[in-house]
Amino acid sequence: MAQLYLIHHLKMKDFKNIWKGNKMKGKPIDELKIGDSAQITRRVTEEVINDFAKATGDFNQLHIDQSYAEKTIFKGRIAHGMLSLGIISAVLGNILPGYGTIYISQEVRFVSPVRLGDEITAKVELIEMITLVQIKF
């Protein structure tokens, strides 16, 4: 389980204006409740890893070169760790809370490698809400 910190500032009136004709999912802050959850599952493919490498510039041989990766402790190619975390970002920004969410920080520990063909499920659950007071001068 990872602990995430984010800001979600849109209320229902904001959602009504933004979502007219839009099929995005999510909840305004005034409708969020403890226990709300959402998830996305994605399969890691050759194309996904190559596209991620191109987008980030991370061409570490562990991710893109099978013959090299076979000689390492992983005994084969592995996906970028940040690829997995990006799927969490997709849940937060697109489903729950959704539009208007700013992903601030996260504490995470990778427990095993993700390999080609694996399915990754990123699930988020609201376990605590902390209301911040904003003061404008």
Strands across the major sheet, in which order?
1-3
Query: What is the class in the CATH system?
Result: Alpha Beta
Stretches where pLDDT is under 50 for at least 5 consecutive residues are none
Integer-rounded radius of gyration: 18 Å
Query: What is the strand tally?
Result: 4
Helix content: 25-40%
Number of helices: 5
Provide mean pLDDT, rounded. Answer: 82
- Domains (count): 1
N-to-C series of helices and strands = EHEHHHHEE
Major sheet description: 2 strands, antiparallel
CATH superfamily: Hotdog Thioesterase
Structural class per helix/strand content? alpha+beta
N-C termini distance: 39 Å
Please tell me the CATH architecture by its name. Roll
